């Protein structure tokens, strides 16, 4: 006997049709009821009028891909009158391949499920192959029928231009939260993971199984039951298709995390949290390789594009603990086009030369590296590397010439700029990376947008910086100009968490933000700090009486170390020249040496004091930050540590003591015009009452300062007239006045 097969069309019922798209069947002849493991709408073949129990096991093999949910019931065949053979087929005949399986409709799944993303390769290359951060499904060997696995690859040191080694010991946690970002952490031990030796951090998420239904009453009958009502036996797991955020909780010893990185375009840079959001599908028996996402695997501006490995930064090594032999430095210069656009190529070259000059006399050696879109920027003298460590002493002219030949053009590739130093066969104590903008390229050959900074560009630079630090090289990242304003998160990520703060030794900093005009002075300070030096500068300001303050020449100063460590050079008295400055250097033997206490004193000569000069002001700064100054006598004491740049300003003001002498004389003359030949009237002389007498007042400037607006007033009511109002030092004038002589009452 033959039967014609039909399909059901009502929601909540299963079409009973012999289709090659069925998963492996196990037919069990039983009574009127049947049970199915799956979702409503699973297709099960009916070969006799008698109802049969049909079990649809979950896929759990490594070769079986999880079936995506469908949005409608199984469609009818193109030929509804297909005929099945009367005899029941064997189990082998009923079992189709995985490719033939038709997924069951999942009532708990979203109605607009996005297509799964291909598994993310864990190569760490992350250059041209950067993807928007997403989670892709793949088979899990030996996976549970109720759990799914989310795996995050954690990267450490770059091992080659396109590969990154694993990092163990990074602790991650799942968080709840919507599209806006992570919210509260998920409780339960399964919600945390720690990366293993392969860099894999895996969350085994329970309760991700599908719902289980059984066949109820027959709803479509024609010479046998073709469709059954589906009755829920057990619901889907609470975590099935649940979305999480992945957040880093801690890093292993010797490493630090970067909770956020800067992304965007110049003028519109922003801090972007470094987190990962899982995809909309999470189902038992599957693993999902997280490529770290912030916005559910997509972003309109693609700022969250990533290389596929979670980044963590290696701690910055310390400088050598001895200063006897100088240091070996790699100076890494950004020669990208933005430096030229800012008109700062000259500033960059002058600053690099000043840095080299500050190393003179320390026994240090210097290498030059350049980068722009690629590294080096070019193979010509305008942008080539000079990787060989050259002693600064005796070679300054060569170093100046090489730096002076550089020009700037192209994009910015931090990754290659740093990794070329790590690849060099030499060992460096310190690498100073000077850049004027965020990375817009990575890898070799360079790949990237060129005009925007995404997560991937900085990720790759972090891995390269890790490789350089692994060689024992301390990395100092210097951001210069407008392109590096705002948060220094990316500089921090490739160097270390300690920012340079004015008033602290520059040598202790991991990263610095500064302007082009300040760069040269900063690099000089860095050079001295890196070579265990400290500098003391005395600025002399002289303010003459009635004049304008300016540099004071011819003033004597002395410096003496009174406590602490270090050797003070120029220990004897020094005299200021036309610039009004004298300088001292304290050379230490260790970077962590005890600070020196130095007494600075001005020695004012007797001649200067007689001219009215005196110390009127004394201020000091250390690394640009004001110090509290306690003046004792004509000097003060300062504390000087390794790398400090101390400046003290002594201001002297000239004051003049005024002095005046007046000699009053009486003359037998009726007016000042008739004084010639007149007889002086001595005190006590007899004069006829009512006669007119003329008095003279000889006014002499006996002080140290000129006199102005001189007015003579006679307390006898005589009107006194003077030929002028000003008197220079030592000068005199004669004033006159006339009036009648009256007897005293």
From TrEMBL:
Residues 34-129 are annotated as: Disordered. PROSITE patterns: VWFA. Pfam families: DUF7507 (PF24346), SpaA_4 (PF24514). Residues 328-526 form the VWFA domain. It comes from the Bacteria. Gene3D superfamilies: von Willebrand factor, type A domain (3.40.50.410). Residues 115-129 have a biased composition (Low complexity). This is Conserved repeat domain-containing protein. It comes from Georgenia satyanarayanai.
């Amino acid at each position: 006997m033959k039967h014609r097969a039909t399909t059901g069309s009502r929601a909540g019922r299963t079409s009973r049709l012999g289709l090659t798209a069925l998963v492996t069947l196990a037919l069990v002849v039983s009574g009127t009821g049947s049970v199915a493991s799956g979702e409503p709408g699973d297709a099960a073949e009916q070969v006799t009028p008698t109802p049969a129990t049909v079990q649809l096991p979950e896929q759990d093999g490594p070769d079986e891909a999880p079936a995506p949910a469908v949005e409608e019931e199984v469609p009818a065949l193109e030929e509804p009158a297909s005929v099945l053979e009367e005899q029941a087929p064997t189990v082998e005949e009923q079992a189709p391949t995985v490719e033939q399986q038709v997924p069951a409709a999942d009532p708990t799944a979203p109605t607009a499920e996005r297509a799964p993303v291909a598994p993310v390769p864990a190569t760490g290359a992350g250059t041209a192959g950067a993807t928007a951060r997403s989670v892709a499904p793949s088979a899990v060997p030996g996976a549970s029928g109720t759990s799914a696995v989310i795996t995050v690859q954690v990267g450490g040191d770059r091992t080659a231009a396109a590969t990154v080694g694993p990092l163990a010991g990074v602790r991650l946690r799942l968080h709840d939260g919507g599209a806006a970002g992570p919210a509260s952490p998920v409780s339960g031990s399964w919600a945390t993971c720690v990366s293993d030796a392969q860099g894999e951090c895996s969350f085994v998420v329970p309760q991700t199984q599908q719902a289980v239904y059984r066949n109820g009453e027959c709803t479509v009958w024609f010479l046998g039951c073709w469709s059954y009502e589906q009755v829920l036996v057990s619901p889907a797991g609470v975590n099935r298709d649940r979305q999480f955020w992945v957040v880093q909780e801690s890093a292993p010893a010797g490493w630090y995390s970067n909770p956020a990185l800067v992304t965007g375009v110049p003028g519109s840079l922003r801090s972007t949290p470094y987190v990962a959001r899982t995809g909309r599908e999470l189902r038992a028996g599957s693993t999902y390789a997280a490529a770290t996402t912030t916005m559910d695997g997509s972003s309109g501006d693609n700022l969250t594009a990533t290389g596929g490995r979670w980044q963590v930064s290696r701690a910055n090594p310390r400088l050598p603990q001895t200063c006897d032999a100088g240091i070996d430095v790699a100076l890494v210069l950004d020669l990208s086009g933005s430096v030229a656009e800012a008109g700062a190529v000259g500033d960059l070259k002058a600053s690099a030369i000043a840095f080299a000059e500050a190393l003179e006399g320390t026994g240090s050696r210097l290498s030059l590296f350049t980068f722009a879109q690629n590294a080096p920027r070019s193979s010509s003298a305008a942008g080539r590397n000079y990787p060989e460590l050259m002693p600064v002493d005796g070679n300054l002219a060569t170093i100046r010439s090489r730096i002076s030949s550089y020009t700037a053009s192209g994009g910015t590739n931090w990754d290659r700029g740093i990794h070329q130093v790590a690849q060099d066969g030499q060992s460096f104590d310190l690498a100073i990376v000077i850049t004027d903008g965020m990375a817009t390229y990575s890898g070799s050959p360079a790949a990237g947008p060129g005009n925007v900074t995404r997560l991937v560009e900085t990720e790759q630079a972090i891995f390269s910086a890790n490789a350089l630090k692994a060689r024992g090289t301390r990395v100092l990242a210097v951001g210069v100009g407008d392109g590096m304003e705002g948060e220094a998160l990316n500089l921090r990520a490739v160097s270390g968490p300690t920012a340079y703060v004015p008033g602290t030794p520059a040598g202790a900093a991991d990263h610095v933000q500064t302007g082009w005009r300040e760069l040269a002075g900063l690099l000089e300070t860095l050079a001295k700090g890196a070579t265990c030096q400290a500098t003391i500068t005395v600025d002399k300001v002289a303010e003459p009486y009635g004049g304008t303050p300016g540099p004071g020449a011819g003033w004597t100063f002395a410096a003496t170390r009174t406590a602490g460590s270090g050797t003070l050079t120029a220990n004897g008295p020094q005299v200021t020249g036309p610039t009004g400055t004298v300088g001292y250097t304290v050379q230490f033997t260790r970077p962590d040496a005890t600070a020196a206490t130095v007494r600075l004193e001005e020695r004012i000569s007797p001649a200067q004091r007689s001219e009215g000069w005196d110390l009127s002001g004394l201020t000091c700064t250390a690394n640009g930050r004001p110090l509290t100054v306690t003046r004792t006598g004509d000097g003060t004491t300062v504390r000087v540590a390794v790398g400090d740049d101390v400046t003290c300003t002594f201001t002297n003001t000239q004051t003049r003591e005024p002095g005046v002498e007046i000699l009053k004389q009486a003359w037998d003359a009726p007016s000042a015009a008739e004084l010639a030949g007149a007889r002086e009237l001595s005190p006590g002389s007899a004069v006829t009452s009512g006669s007119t007498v003329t008095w003279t007042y000889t006014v002499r400037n006996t002080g140290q300062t000129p006199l102005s607006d001189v007015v003579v007033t006679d307390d006898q009511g005589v009107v006194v007239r003077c030929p002028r109002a000003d008197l220079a030092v030592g000068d005199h004038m004669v004033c006159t006045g006339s009036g009648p002589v009256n007897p005293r009452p």
